[in-house]
Amino acid sequence: MARASLWLPPTLILLTWLSGCASVAPLGSMLPPGGPSRVELLDTPFFPQEDHQCGPSALATVLEASGSPARPEQLVAEVYLPGREGSLQQELLAATRRRGRLAYVLSGEADALLAEVQAGRPVLVLQNLGVDAYPIWHYAVLIGFDAQRNDVILRSGRQQRLLMSWSRFEGSWRRGGQWAMTVLPPGTLPARPSLPAYLDACAGLEAAGMLDAAAAAYAAASQRWPRSSLVELGTGNVAYARGDLRGAVAAYQRGIDLSPSDAALRNNLAQALLDSGCVGRARVEARQAAELARGTLLETDVRETLESVEAAAASRGPSASCPDAAQGDGDAQPLSLPHEPAARTRDR
Amino acid sequence: MFIENLRRACVAVTCVSLLSVAMPLPAQAAIVTTDRAVALEQRGAYVGTITAALARDDVRNRMVALGVDPAAIEARLGGLTDTELAMLAERINNAPAGGDALAVIGIVFLVLMILEFTGVIDIFKNV
Known about the structure:
The complex is a heterodimer.
Chain A: H1 2-18, H2 27-30, E1 38-40, H3 54-65, H4 72-79, E2 80-81, E3 86-88, H5 89-98, E4 102-105, H6 110-118, E5 123-128, E6 137-146, E7 151-156, E8 159-165, H7 166-175, E9 180-184, H8 195-207, H9 211-224, H10 229-241, H11 245-258, H12 263-275, H13 279-293, H14 299-316, H15 339-343
Helix pairs in contact in A: 3-4, 8-9, 8-10, 9-10, 10-11, 10-12, 11-12, 12-13, 12-14, 13-14
Chain B: H1 2-22, H2 34-43, H3 49-65, H4 70-77, H5 82-91, E1 97-98, H6 106-126
C-alpha cells in the first residue's frame, strides 16, 4: 500500500503529461447551467451481468427505468451475438424500438449525457476500456455524477455502484466513439433534443412497426419543431401505414406548405391520393414530384409513382370522388386532423 | 416409386411456396419512407430497395454464422432501418460489440497499460 502510494504521484504525473494534449475539462465546466451539480438516480434498477452479457444487462436497466419491463435473460436472445461475445449498438436500438420505446442516440458531446441524467434518465454508454488498437468494448449505465468530486456513478458489469473519475470515464467513452443512448417513452423529448437524431429515432420506430408509438413521437416532434417538413412526412407515413389515408393526405399537405419543393412529400401525397381514388389530384402532384425529382436520387421512385398514377388515370379517368380536393392545394388547414387523437394512444 | 415421386413433388411445392413467402414483397406502394427521406436530407444518400433487401439477406447469413438461433433472426432484424441493415451487412464482424468488463484484470491490465502507453506515443507522433 505504502509502495503503491509512492509510485502513484510520478505515474500520475507521467500519464498526465503524456496525455496532456487530450486533457479533459472538469465535469463541472460541462454541466448544463441551472441543473443540480450532483445527481444520483437511485431508483435505477440493477442487473448484474453474466459473462460477456453487459449488453442485455445495461439495456434491461434503461428499459426498466423508462417503465418498460425487461429482464436481461429475455434480452440475450434478442441482442447477444455469440460469435462476437457481445452485443451491437444497432441491436440495442432495435430491441428498444420493438418495445415501443424511442431509442434516442445522444450527440457526441459530454454535456448531453449530463443533461439527460439531470433530467432523471439514466444513459446507456459504450465504453472502450482498452485502447484503440486493442479495444475492450463495454456497455454501462450512467446514473449519476458529482461535479465537486469530479466523478461519475455507473451501473457496470457486476458493480451496482461504480465510482469512476470523470477523466477516466470520459476517456473510455471517447475511445468508444462517444456513443450513448437514452430510452424515452414516446411523446417525451430528450433534454437536448436535436431534430436529426430525433427523426432517426422515430424512423426506427416505424421500421419496427410500432406505429402508435411512432405517431405519439411525431406528435411531440411537431410541437417542438412546427416548421419541420420531415416531421410531417413521418406523420403522414405513419398514418398511411395505418390505412388512415385522410390523415396521411393532411400531413403531407402540411409538409408541402412548409416545403413546397420537396419531391418526397409530393410523391407520397400523390400515392395517398391515388389510393383514396382521387386520381386527378394525384396526377397533378405526381407530375410536380417528377419535375422536382429530376436529376436527384429520388428520380426512380417518383417515376414509378407517376407511372402508376398515369395508368390509373388512363383506366379509370380522373375520379370525381375526391373527398378533400374541393378545399384546394396549399390551404393552410385543408382537413380536419383525424390522426391527432390517435397520436395520443401508445403501444403498451 | 409413386410414393417417392409424390414425396418429391410435395417437397418441391413446399419449397416454392416457402420461397415465395420469404421473397421480399415489392416495396409497399411508392411511398418514400421516413428513413430514406431523413438519410437523403442528412447524408445526401440513402439505401435503395434492392440494396436493403440484399443487406437483409447478408445480415441474416452472418448472424447464423455468428451463432444466432435461425428461428430468432427475423424478429431481431425487425426494428432495424435500411440504413442500419446496410451498415451491419458491411461491419457486423468488426463493429463494436460491447461484452466484457471482467477481463480487465491482472496481466491483461498490465498489457493494456503498455499498449495504452504506446497508443499515446502514436497519438503524439500524429499531432
